[in-house]
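Re-run requested by the PI after the first attempt was lost when the workstation crashed. Everything re-entered from the original request form. Ligand of interest: C2E.
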Amino acid sequence: MWDYSFMFPSILVLFILLVFFFSRPRLPIRMNRTFLAILLLELSIMVTDIISSEMDNNYRQFSGAALYLMNTLYFALYIFRTYLFFRFTTDALGLGYRENRLLHGLLGVPFLIGEILSLSSFATGAVFRIDGAGYHSGPCYSILYICFFFYILASLVLLIVYRQRLNPYQQVSGFAFNLMLLAGNAMRILFPRLLVMNTFCLAAVLTIYLSFQNPDLYLSDRGDAFNMRGLRALLSEYYRRSDYCILGFSILNYNQERSILGGRQTDQCLKQISQYLIGTYPRFLPFYLRSGRFALVGPASAQWREILDAINARFQHSWGVDNTAVYLNVSFMLLNPNSRLDSADRIVNNLTVAFEVTGKPDASSHDDPLGMQTMQQLDAQVDVLRSIESALERDEVEVFLQPVFDSRTRRIVAAEALARIRDATGRIISPALFIPIAEKTGYINRLGEAVFEKTCAFIRENSLASLGLAWINVNLSPIQCMQRNLCDRFSAILDKYGVSADQIHLEVTEQSIADFALVENQIDRLRERGFQFVLDDYGSGYSNLTRVKHYPFVNIKLDMEVVWDYCRERDKLIPTIVQGFRQMGFSITAEGIETEEMAEALTGIGCEYLQGYLFDKPLEMAAFVARYGAGQNPFEQDKTKPTGK
Ligand code: C2E
Ligand code: MG
Ligand code: MG
């Protein structure tokens, strides 16, 4: 007689698990499908176990065919259960069938043999047979145990080999549920009449539920979007697929918005946004990745540009919380992981960097904010970001100096300090690449300070006069101007190196003064401290003459494009502007002078200073000293020879 009194509470618990499993959103990933299969299989196996045991106990009342049918079903399900638990382990470890065909092919053999023996038992009597005295175990009955032990052993080995793929909690749970299955089987062998095996399996299912399958583990706590863990789980399954896109968007100035609105209201907005995504794009998977960042994952064939426009349009309207209309600005990125080797880690890593890079107000670049980013582009940005971090960490930001010349005498008068960093192979990365990224990620503050400090150290070590320099220009990003203690920090550095503020001219671009209010205060303080200001890249931006007029610049640098444009086609505009500025008391520098003709043309219209490749490219500090030290001046002209027009 079999005792199956254990089974009724087990069925009840399983039922509760099923209800919970279906009550929350789930990711359409393999692990979830396998778990659902396990739940359903456990339920059917318990029912089959009860029915077949009951029938075997009262075998006389049933036909041979019915007894064979129920017992065959039970054994087939039993072997399938063994295999499903093993599949759950491989799913949890990210060892998908498609990517690991050989492993799955080889490890599927015992399962197949077990199933063939069970299903053919009605003819062969291999696993069991039914005769006039009822149910009997067959000669191959032990295949049940062989299969079970084989798959548990295989699971344990895989769990050890690939343990890094799970967090420590999941590692322990992975071992725990397999050991519970092992214990269940041992009980079945020791006490065959006690149908306690199912209870052990249920304990294993519960362990899995608590550590891997609880839907809340993959859901964000701001609405019903999935979280970062969910995104990682999804992307590990999408490994080597390129038929999907990730649309990311991020609330601009999230922290600021949060401090203005308060945590509760912000969270309500985030929930509304999640609900909007779920409601509007039911076929897509929405994720909330903290810090005001969302992602929508869907097929590559979708009309992403339209979706993006629609979401953008929705953000033109308010999100309403407690009768307050909250307007939020967002920036977008569209990511198509089209490399077959993009691992989940790499994609998530790149996505995070992309959020960092696009998630801030765009201070200096004119990037298409809705532009499609390929993984290669993001990779390049990640590399640049890593190089910035490593240069700052190891104090390896370099400063190159480019000389500036008096246009009449061709004597060196000043130099511009230009930041350089190197990539992992030691090659120089262009500032055009790393400055915008440093600005968007906030590293520009440290980077700008490093350049400023190295310039001060240079001034202390080399007397400016011996190099023929009256000052050195240092570029100042608008982001730096927003730093409240900028003036104090620069003052401290000046004091540290015993450098006087009038030895340094700070270059700010036209764009930075476009947002006048933000930088005005800082510029005033720095001026009081003795720094002088230069307007860089004049003509590249908004060219607001009124603002220029009210600014205390000592010098205006014509942007290279303006200079080149004038040299290609001489017009009256540039000479007029230059004359106008001169009458207002500004001196003018022409940048990007590459030929003698250009030098003469710009000198002719009244530019006092020239800077460009005709004279020198930016030089390493040592090379600069070697070239211009001890009063050497390779370009000084015979003062009797007239220059310009
Ligand atoms: P910028 O301040 O306008 O610097 C002048 C740029 O023009 C330099 O590029 C210089 O190498 C380049 N240049 C000078 N003469 C010529 C020429 O004759 N022909 C050509 N084709 N180019 C010439 P670089 O060093 O690549 O710097 C690019 C920009 O990056 C700078 O433009 C500046 O806006 C920014 N930058 C560089 N260093 C720093 C820094 O320390 N802080 C900040 N905030 N920005 C920096
Ligand atoms: Mg400059
Ligand atoms: Mg410039």
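Saved to the shared folder this time. The domain at 228-381 is CATH 3.30.70.270 (Alpha-Beta Plaits).
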